[in-house]
Design goal:
five-stranded parallel beta sheet; alpha/beta; Multidrug-efflux Transporter Regulator, Chain: A, Domain 2; 13 helices; flat; single chain; three-stranded antiparallel beta sheet; 3 domains; Rossmann fold; Methyltransferase, Methionine Synthase (B12-binding Domains), Chain A, domain 1
């Protein structure tokens, strides 16, 4: 194995349990790849527990993607990351969606192959990059192609179903990370059925270290308020795509009145919704910055 880049002392590292959740590999597999093949070289704490740097987590994701694509770990472990990425290059067509493998699977309506292709992308890129660079563009592309009559309704629904399942799995895997903060609830307003923006944002938030809970779409304001009270969430994040502006304003105004001033409301998806004090419109990049800001606050600020 080539030497990893030098890891700065202040760089965040991760215990084995977190790496299991972040990569989808079992603890047994990670240990075996380390002992037998030297695939990664985690540092050890004074107590002897493993700690993995971010570059090693990324390498493990690459190795998982390559082994799932049919390569043997024994043939991969001694290679630098760039060489592994080269073997996966046919999969990394981003933002080239739809991928060639996906096109072929869709022509046959082969759900298993669609899920496998998207799963390899998730393994190679990680949850946040997959959500942003693959899932989002893919769903937009398929919707536009369906409107132009280039793909069938069945193919568009199949892609949507597979993508929803993979995003949900990534969210569940990441949500087990202990100590995530801030706690954020993701949903869409009543009358807004388009959930993918909120789901993609939730996966992005988990990758940024937040404790994200996706509640599904179209939640009434009283249900959102009840969920905040039950969970102690610091933020409610809403996806708004097709809901008329007037209806969105009424919903947000009502929700703002039901929540304490300490609970932030973030909205993504459409253009800025003006005229609702205490509601902020953000995109995925701003989402990460907001999470980072809240993570720097004293723990007592997390209600």
């Amino acid at each position: 194995m080539s030497e990893n880049p030098k890891i700065c002392a202040e760089e965040i590292d991760y215990p084995l349990g977190a790496v299991v959740r972040m990569t989808g590999l079992s603890a047994h597999t990670i240990r075996a790849w380390e002992r037998r093949y030297g695939a990664v070289q985690p540092r050890r704490t004074e107590g002897g527990t493993r700690r993995y740097a971010a570059v090693e987590v990324a390498r493990l994701r690459l190795l998982r993607a390559a082994t799932e694509a049919g390569y043997r770990i024994g043939d991969l472990a001694g290679l630098p990351d760039a060489a592994i990425e080269a073997r996966l290059a046919p999969l990394e067509d981003r933002p080239g969606v739809p991928l060639p493998q996906l096109e072929e699977a869709l022509a046959r309506l082969d759900l298993g192959e669609v899920e496998r292709t998207l799963g390899l992308q998730l393994s190679a890129l990680g949850p946040a990059a997959f959500a942003r660079d693959v899932a989002g563009p893919l769903l937009r592309d398929m919707g536009e192609r369906w409107e132009r009559g280039e793909v069938s309704i069945a193919a568009e629904h199949l892609v949507s179903s597979a993508t929803r399942g993979i995003l949900a799995d990534a969210l569940r895997a990441g949500s087990f990370a202990a100590g995530g903060t801030p706690r954020i609830l993701f949903t869409t307003p009543e009358g807004e059925p388009h959930e993918f923006g909120a789901l993609i944002a939730a996966v992005t938030a988990v990758a940024a270290g937040a404790a994200a809970t996706y509640l599904g779409p179209q939640l009434p304001t009283d249900e959102v308020a009840g969920a905040v009270a039950a969970s102690g969430a610091r933020v409610v994040a809403l996806g708004v795509i097709t809901l008329p502006l007037g209806a969105a304003r009424r919903y947000l105004t009502d929700l703002r009145e039901r929540l304490s001033a300490a609970t932030e409301i973030w909205v993504g998806g459409t253009g800025p919704i003006d005229g609702v004090p205490g509601v902020d419109h953000i995109d995925l990049d701003e989402l990460g910055r907001r999470i980072s800001r809240l993570q720097r606050l004293p723990t007592s600020a997390e209600a």
